Amino acid sequence: MAFVAIADRDHEHALHDPETFIRKYIWSQDHKVIAIQYALVAIGIGLVALVMSVLMRLQLGFPDTFSLIAPQDYYQYITMHGMIMVIYLLTALFLGGFGNYLIPLMCGSRDMVFPYMNMLSFWFYLLAVLVLVAGLFVPGGPTGAGWTLYPPQAIAPGTPGHGWGIICMLASLAIFVVAFTMGGLNYVTTILQARCKGMTLMRMPLSVWGIFMATVLGLLAFPALFVSCVMMTLDHSLGTSFFMPAVVQMGEQTVHSGGSPLLFQHLFWFFGHPEVYIVALPAFGIVSDLLSVHARRNIFGYRMMVWAILAIGCLSFVVWAHHMYVSGMNPYFGFFFATTTLIIAVPTAIKVYNWILTLYKGDIHLTVPMLFAIGFIFTFINGGLTGLFLGNVTVDVPLSGTYFVVAHFHMVMGVSPILVVFGAIYHWYPKITGRLLDDRLGRIHFWCTFIGTYAIYLPMHYLGILGVPRRYYSYSDAIDFIGQNVHIANEWITISAVFVAATQMIFLFNLAWSIRNGRDAGPNPWRAASLEWQTPDTPPKHGNWGKDLPVTYRWAYDYNVPGAPEDFVAQNVPPGDPRAGNAPAGRDHGVHH
Amino acid sequence: MSLTVAYFALATGIVVWLLLVRKLSAKSWEAQPASAIEAEAPRWPAQRIGLWVFLAVITSLFGLFVSAYYMRLSGHHGTGPAQDWMALSEPPVLWLNTVLLIAASVAMQAARKAVRTSVERGFTALLLGGLLTLAFLGGQFYAWGQVRESEFFSPVNPAVAFFYLLTAVHGLHLLGGLYVWGRTLARMRREDVETIDLLQSINLSVELCGVYWHFLLLVWLGLFTVMLST
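^ Those are the sequences you sent over. The predicted structure of the assembly is below.
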């Protein structure tokens, strides 16, 4: 039986061409609209988490000046901040937002293969966010168990939000997993099945590769989160003892007995570590494309980049217990996981070298997206190097409870990917709206964010080495070794954090203002070669490609081609075409001639 | 947990090897013959790929449940089996249920074969497969009641908790399958069933129902074995 991609069939395509406002922008099945819906909700909930972090920083920096939050609020905000940033902002934005927007456009398809399921995915995501937000308003407030939700304290009295708060959190996560699975099936199947003619796997832009592998990781790892959520809900509500050991509370034995808190940690981190790469791999892919386009240079070592993505993806499933060195597990386990952790640095380092070699002798245009991409390389190297420290058991044990860990993961998992998010938004905004974001505001936004985040996180490494414990609401005089210098550092960090948070308002203003007032971008302002810039309309209309699907003749990195009139050759330019210059479908991979 | 890791290692190993050897060695920066575009092999339909990807997700889900089962069973830090684990004597009706689910799977396979020649015969077999599945679910529900009555019943007993949890998750997956089953039956009853497009899509749906049912049968056999052996 010969099968055709659903999206290729003209009559089916015509069937769901939306007409009414509601079908077009609310209950939309168009991947571009869904992408924007995802992105807006993610950014919205991310702002809530940002405000929480500012409140926490004000408390830490100026405990005597501000009394905005009580100790239990601090724990609740820290939990919500972590969970929102990692899952509801970064995961949703990279995969639901950029994944949805870029996959069909970069692969040359009309839409996702299951548009209806794609729509459901967004609405389930929105429901997950609403349930999460509902946790803020239930009696007792949201859970304050820390974003890792470790039992027994997550559901034991004494922890803020141990009643309804934790239930909202667990329910919300379970709904998120369902939403992600529906989206993820779409992304993977679309990439495998609905690529246009000539778009072989090894011609896909690295953005698609990163998103693809991240989705595979998500599909296999999120079930672990789902399993732990279900089992913890049962422990909480029905009195089972999967995770809950025998506990004496207020002098009385609880109903639980024999459960294993360590089992939860294994399940949680079996999801939690791949989650790091679910966020990182799309960032890796996108940053590769940004560097290549804005340095007018083919990506260095494309094939190695793809293999590195695959290797990182596979290895990320066998390193989870490096989050558990201090859990009391068998030390031989620690040795195994330290080894795998250090091995994963190899493909990661390959990627870093390849980015730098892409820039080497490139025709670097310091556009705003490029600034963010280069900022990412710096930050990722910094964050990655402290990861090598923490990957070793003997170094991790004393540092694990300190601000060193906070500094490490914010650098590598917070700031690095968010810099890519910004770069990517500056890069693709012209495709989404037809207008460029304001350049001057963009530069201000970049420099304030970049320098500001270093002002926040570099001192935190220092605090960590001093042994300042994390998770503390305040460092009262009772803790002797917390010297005056720590308090001054904390004030400095808080001022920087407020500054960086305020800077983001410039970005939001730019986003809103440029929709109407930005400079007209034209179809391809960055002179990029990948398919999404070759659509007949900008922004692309429903169905993306007009009457005929594109055909791909080359990879996405033909920049600086000798003899080509525009210095690049788009992926859909056939060999022999005058636009192809001296590059008859691919060329020798020289740099400058 | 080690079971899950082994599964992942094997699955990703196979996938990566297949991909690497066949496709990922292409040097996409070099000139390729124009004929290469025409020579691309036709791809599987999206629904089939989607289902197989989904099966990988479910494998991960049940693999993790079973890993949790064994880890909970083994107690803390290798100090021997968990003290509070009171092994369940599985209700005998589960054997009957197993037979019902095997029969459902066989019926689905028959439907897959029959529908190629006649929608009518395919309909009958498919209907039978679904009804047998409903009977299976009824039987599971009956088993729940029996465990509820048994002397072992207590939510604190992890053997009981896992029994309910695993059967419920498996049953929910079957219910999801029954939703597609119902939609497929409805399409087979449509007036314009003889059009090529619809026939093709019905063929595909029945095929995929079969694959899904076989898979869930395997899952059930796995879960049943795990529960019987402990």
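Chain A has 15 helices and two strands. The longest helix of chain A spans residues 71-107.

Shout if you want it in another format.
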